[in-house]
Each structure stands twice: as structure tokens, then as C-alpha cells.
Amino acid sequence: MLATKTLIRLDENSRIPKYLQIAHSIIEDIESQHLTVGDKIPSINEISEEYYLSRDTVEKAYNQLKEKKIIVSVKGKGYYVARNISHNKETVLFLMNKLSNYKLRIYNSFIDSMGTSVQVDLQIYHCDPKNLLHILEENMGAYDHFVVMPHFKNDDKSHYNIDCSVMETLKRIPSEKLLIMDNYLADFEGQVASIYQDFKHDIYKALCEGIFQLQNYEKLLLVYPQQTLYPYPKEIMQGFKKFCKDFEFDHEILETVYTDMELRSGDVFIVIEENDLVNLVKQVREQNLALGEDIGIISYNDTPLKELLGITVISTDFKLMGETAAYMIRKQKKESVKNVFNFINRGSV
């Protein structure tokens, strides 16, 4: 008799293949918590001998469970339960490039929109393509859907959008299971679901929306960090330069808001990082300059705190991005949709 917890249930009259009946028996025992993570399950030889089955049949069942990351084999010891599962729930692996207030708003919106019938697991790969590849390889076949935010950094801490190794791995995921979020990948146009920002066009369009306010200032300054843990898309800088050229604005790009900045009346700053925003507002107050009159400030990416403080922003709608992604998965859409991006004037320009 088998010494381990699970009991394989086979129906000789069923038309379901024996290997699937074996796999379903183990899955049912995990769902009912008769088996839990770390429990040992019978070996291939044990099941083969106990139920008079060929080793190939049992091995096929185990390979299917291993592919879905439900069980894992430990050399010299046997097979063990690798994760809890709920057979009634769809599963989603949400792969985020970095942990930030903005990204979490997308994630929370996505979870709320998907509802309680779906299990969503979050993993952060820190803009490192090697980390992302490892996570994808480890979980290939284990989830019903994969949501991926493709943002990467190289050794010089510069941002880039497309990594060839990652692209090849993503193409191995069935198209109906993959959703690309937050960034545009042309290779997947019309083939998979995609909800993205167009960073170059978005900042250009948003500044055009605020042209009436910007015309009151003499110089536009973009604070674009060049050396940061999580680099920002270069397209933001490109869109800013194009706007300034097209509308003949004097402009400058700074890496940070320096201590004791030489602030001049007629300057308007577009600030990406929170620390730079805080530092700039502090210096404006210390130098007794009037925000929205002497000095203008526009912050990139909206937050409730910026709304409370009356800071003008240019921003995508993070809540809508999460809702749209959930809708596309539920409706099995294979479209590329650009998320909305707006200039929201609150009087700081």
C-alpha cells in the first residue's frame, strides 16, 4: 500500500485518460487540503505498481503537474507539493518592473476589477531582464494569464523598452494568456492584449493642453534623473524637447533639483521624482516666490497628495489602466489600447 497521504482515484469505465485521472486526484487532494505544500506524494514506481499502470502513464501525469508548478521533484528524495491551488479560480501572474505608488494603484485597480473569483500573484523584477526571465521560466504553464510591464535598465542605468531574450520568452506564452501593460511593444500589435502609455506623445500632448498657462513663463525646465535605481523612459525627454522646439520655448534639462537653486521668476519646472518636487516647493517658499505666478511647477504622475496640495500634474489614469487590463482579460481582447494622459491644472502654473 502507498505510505503517503494521497489516494489515486481511477475509474476504469471513464473515457478520461488515466494520466489525467492521476493528475486530477492529486489536484483534488490539494484543493481539499488533504495535501498541503511540502507534503510528499507517491513515487512514479509506487503508483505504477499499486494500480498496475505503465510508468509512462504515471510519468505523463507528473510531468503535467510539474509544468504547472503544482509539484516539484527533489533529486534522490521524491516528489512534493509545491503550491496551494484553487481549481475553481483563474490565476494571474502580475509582473511589475518596480514597486511604486503609481504601479500599486494600477495593481489594486486591476485586482478590484478582476473580482474575488481570480487569484492574482504579484512579483517584482526590478527592471532587470534576467530576473524577469527567471520568473517567467519558473512559472511558464503555471498560470492562466500573465500581465507584464516591460521596462528594463542596462548597466549604465539607462531605460530601454525591448529586450530580445525577454521577447523570445514572451512569445512562448500563448497569445490569449499574455497582456502587455504600461509600455508599447510593436511586435505584439494585434496579437495580444495591450494597454500602454506612449511616453513621447503623451507629454507632448499634455503640454499642448497647458499651452495657455505655459505662455506666461519664459523658460521650461525638465528635471529628468539620469542616474536612478529605476530609470525613466527616454521618450519623456524626447517629447519635452519636441514640444519646446515646436513652440519655441527656451528650455533646459536638469538631472535633479539642486540645493540652493538659482530660481528665477518666469521659470516653470516639470518634475518627475517626488523628492525633487518636495525640494523645489521648499525652495520656492524659502525664497518667498509665488507658486503659480513667479515660479510654475508641473509634476509628472498624479497622486492624491498632489491633488490635496494643489500641484498641477501631467499624468496617465492609473486606475483606468488597471480596469482596462482586467476588462481585456475577461473579454479575451487582443487589442492595443493607449491609456489616457492629461494635463490637470490645479493652479501651480
Structure description:
With 349 residues, the protein is α/β, with parallel strands linked by helices. It folds into three domains: 18-81, Arc Repressor Mutant, subunit A; 90-197 and 318-339, Response regulator (Rossmann fold), CATH 3.40.50; 200-316, Rossmann fold, CATH 3.40.50. It contains twelve helices and 17 strands. The chain has helices at 18-31, 44-51, 55-67, 101-114, 129-139, 164-170, 199-209, 211-214, 234-246, 274-286, 304-309, 318-330, and strands at residues 40-41, 71-74, 78-81, 90-96, 118-124, 145-148, 152-153, 159-160, 178-182, 193-196, 219-223, 250-254, 267-271, 295-300, 312-316, 336-338, 341-344. A six-stranded parallel β-sheet has the order 5-4-6-9-10-16, covered by helices on one side. Strands 12-11-13-14-15-17 form a six-stranded mixed β-sheet, with helices on both faces. A three-stranded antiparallel β-sheet has the order 1-3-2. Helix 11 links the parallel strand 14 and strand 15 (312-316). Helix 5 packs parallel to helix 6 (164-170) and helix 7 (199-209) packs parallel to helix 9. The radius of gyration is 26 Å and the shape is elongated. The N and C termini lie far apart (78 Å). The mean pLDDT is 92.
